[in-house]
Amino acid sequence: MKFQKLTIHNIASIEDAVIDFDCEPLLSSEVFLITGKTGAGKSTILDAICLALYADTPRLDTTRMQGDTKEGDRAVKINDPRQLMRRNTGEAFVKLTFTGSNAIHYEASWSVARARKKPNGNYQPKSWQLKNLDT
For the whole prediction, is pTM greater than 0.70? Predict the structure, then answer.
């Protein structure tokens, strides 16, 4: 699998970001480092890739944080990936375009919204898709 582009919108500490792996300096790099200050979004980049590919992220499975978010009469678990939506926003998504080991181009996407895309709306079910871009 070869990543081509990662688009992040309202996930954790990242409001909007696009990482284009087909442009310099990443294009000619065999290996690269994700670095930055605490809270800059390093882990969020990895979370976004996992959300696009698997609709989940391992970091939430091992969290030691406790407590659920209450939404009306429903509890939203602390390890629910929808909790990664930035606070005070109504929608969040990630898109990852990549070339598979079969040489087919794909776009994997994950998104979540609150009711009527309002920051105080209840979480809606996630959307998770894999598109074959060649057909």
Answer: yes
